[in-house]
Design a protein that fits this description.
It is globular, with a radius of gyration of 22 Å. 49% of the residues lie in helices and 8% in strands. The chain has 16 helices and ten strands. A four-stranded mixed beta sheet has the order 1-2-8-5, with helices on one face. The protein has a two-stranded antiparallel ribbon with strand order 3-4. Strands 6-7 form a two-stranded antiparallel sheet. The protein starts with a strand and ends with a helix. It is α+β, with helices and mostly antiparallel strands. The chain has a single domain, classed as Orthogonal Bundle (Cytochrome p450). The structure holds protoporphyrin IX containing FE. The site of protoporphyrin IX containing FE has 26 residues, from helix 3, helix 11 and helix 15. Protoporphyrin IX containing FE binds next to helix 3, helix 11 and helix 15. It comes from Paxillus involutus ATCC 200175. This is Unplaced genomic scaffold PAXINscaffold_18, whole genome shotgun sequence.
Amino acid sequence: MAGHFIYFNTRRRILIISSLSVATELLEKRSSKYSGRPDAPSMSLYAGYIMCCSMLTCPRYGWGFTTGLLDYTDRWKQHRRFHQQGFRPEAVFNWRPFQLQKAHTLLVNLLASPGHMVDHVTTFTASTIMAATYGYDTLPHKDPMLDIVNRAIAIFIESTSIANVACFTIFPFLKYLPTWLPGLSFYRNAPVSRDLARKMLDTPFEFTKKSMADGSAEPSLVYEFLSRSREAGGNGLLDEEIVKEVAASGLTAGIETTSSVLMAFFLAMAMYPKVQERAQAEIDEVVGRRRLPNFDDRASLPYVEAVLRAPHATTEDDMYDGWFIPDQTLVIVNVWAIGHDESRYEDPNTFNPSRFLTPEGELNDDDLHYIYGFGRRICPGRYLAEASLWIAIASVLAVFQIRKAKNEHGEDIEIVPQFTRGQVTHPAPFKCAIVPRSVEAEQLARTQI
Ligand code: HEM
C-alpha cells in the first residue's frame, strides 16, 4: 500500500486508487496504458456506479457488444468515434427543447402518482436517451419499446449480480453443470437475456430505419449515422451492426446511472429540507413563480447547480511513484473515497451543496468530473446526462416540496439512506412525500404539456 493506492498481488493483480491526483496521473496522463478491459471475470467499482464486467459472463447473457465491456480494440475505437459525434456538447445542445418537454412530463407524472417516483424518473431518463439515440418519442407510461429495454436491463442486472459473477469467477466449473440444479436458476436466464438483448439491439433501430423510409424520421444519432453511411456508400450489414451496438450501449449505460442520481436527489431533498428551501428561494428569486425554469436560467442558479454536483485494466506495464504496475492489472478507481477525502471536503458525509460555492456564492471549480471516469474511457454520455439531470432537478424544485413521509400518527418516517448493491447502485426504496408547493405551482406544471 502506498498513500492513496493499494496494490494486491494475488491470483488477480488489482490496483485500487483512492486519490484524484493518482487517478488523473495514471488514467488521464497515461491513458494509453490504462484503457483496456480485463480479460477475465472481474469487477470495476465506482461510487454510485458499480459495473460488474466479465468477459466470460456478459457475452453469455448477450451483452458482449456494449462499449463499456469492449477491450481497447479497433472496434472500441469505432464505438467511441460514434459516441463522440452523437453526444458531443454541440449535438447534445440540440436536445434541450426535448429534455425540457420530458422534464414537464415528469412533473405531470409526479402530480398524478407521486408514489411511483422511481418509475417516473426512469421513464424521464430513458425517454431523453431514446429520443437522442433513435428519434423515438416514448409514451408517458408503459411504452412497449422501453419495456423491452427495461426488461433486458433488469434480467441482465439480476443474473449478473456481483454475487453471481463472483460465484462463476471462483468456481468456473459451475458453467458445465446442469442449470436445473438448485442455486443455478439465474444461469437459466442466459437464453432469455440473450433474446432480449438482441431485441434491444434490433427493435428501436428498425423503428428509425422504418421512419427514415416513410419520411417521418426525427433527427437522432442512428438517423445521422445511417444517412452518413449511405452517402459514403457504407458496406451495409457491418455498419448497421456497429450502429446498433453503439446505440444500445448508450441506452444501457445511460438509463440506470442517470436515474440513480435523480433518485438520490429525491432522497437528499427529503433528508435536507434547508438545502431544498435555499434552492427553491434561489429559483423564486431568479425565475419567479409565473414560469418554470429553462436552460437559459442555468448560469444564474449557482446553488441549484451546487445541489446537482453532490476499472481500468492496464494494457502495458507501468511505473508510478517507484511502484511497478504489471500488464493486465485490474485498476479500480474508488470514486467514493475521492468524494469523501477529508483533505478536499470538510465533513464529507454531510450533504452540503455549499462546498461547491465560493464565499461570494459563485460556483467553485470542483465540477466533480471524476464521477464520469477518466482518460480514454471517460463517459461519452456525460453532457447529455448533465443536461437531463439539471432540467429535471430545477423543474422538480420549482414545483414540488419533497418531505419525509408521515406515519399514521402524523410523525415523520425517518429515512436511513441505503444503497442497493449491483452493477449500478441506486438508493434502496425509501418513503417520501412529493407534494406541490402551491396551487399555482401545480397549475403551472399542468399547463406545460
Ligand atoms: C449520471 C449519469 C452517468 C454517470 C454517473 C456515468 C458514469 C460513467 C462511468 C464512471 C463510466 C466508466 C468510465 C471509465 O471506464 O473510466 C461510464 C462509461 C460509459 N458511459 Fe456513462 N454515465 C452516465 C450517463 C451516461 C449516459 C446518459 C450515456 C449515453 C447516452 C452514457 C454512456 C456511457 C458509455 C457508452 C460508456 C462506456 C465508455 C467506454 O468504455 O469507452 N453514460 N459512464
